[in-house]
Amino acid sequence: MSVTSSPAAAKATPNYVQKPNQDDKTKTLEEIEAKMEKIRPRLNAVRDAISSVTQKSDADPRTALRKRLGELREKQAENKRGKQVKIDQLNALSNSLKKKIADLKSTQDKLPFKTLDAVEAQIQVGEAARVWIHQVG
Question: Which of 6, 57, 67, 109 is most buried, judged by most C-beta within 10 A?
Fold first, then answer.
């Protein structure tokens, strides 16, 4: 089987994209814009009809519930802020108390006597030494 080429196939146009014509483009855009201008009043009418149907009134129970939800959220946020202030105050007092305890411990570590019994024992020793000095002297 041999393939023969016909003269019509030999004269076919090449397969590449031609440069668009600016005048055709402008004309097409103008036609589209004209169609849009014709449709625009209908579009606006439909939008107005939709908005008039969906307008919410205060009598709607969902609107009242949403308003109540907003109030509750505001109150909750206010309570949270107040709670945070109290927590900050508590932390400040706790840190102050820890510092005072640390200072007290460091002061106690510097003292020669750690307990009341040690102080009493030292007083007894001092009184005994004083009594002995009186007797000798």
Answer: 67
Quote the CA–CA distance of 133 and 42 in Å, as a whole number: 122
**DSSP code, position 130:** H
- Which residues have a Cβ under 8 Å from the Cβ of 63 and sit 6 or more positions away? 56, 57
H or E element at residue 105: helix 61-110
d(CA 82, CA 72): 15
| Rounded Cα gap, residues 102 and 56, in angstroms | 64
Mind listing the pLDDT tens digit for each residue in 27-72?
999 999 999 999 999 999 999 888 887 665 656 788 889 999 999 9
- The per-residue pLDDT for range 12-27, each reduced to its tens digit, is 666 888 888 899 999 9
- pTM comes to 0.36
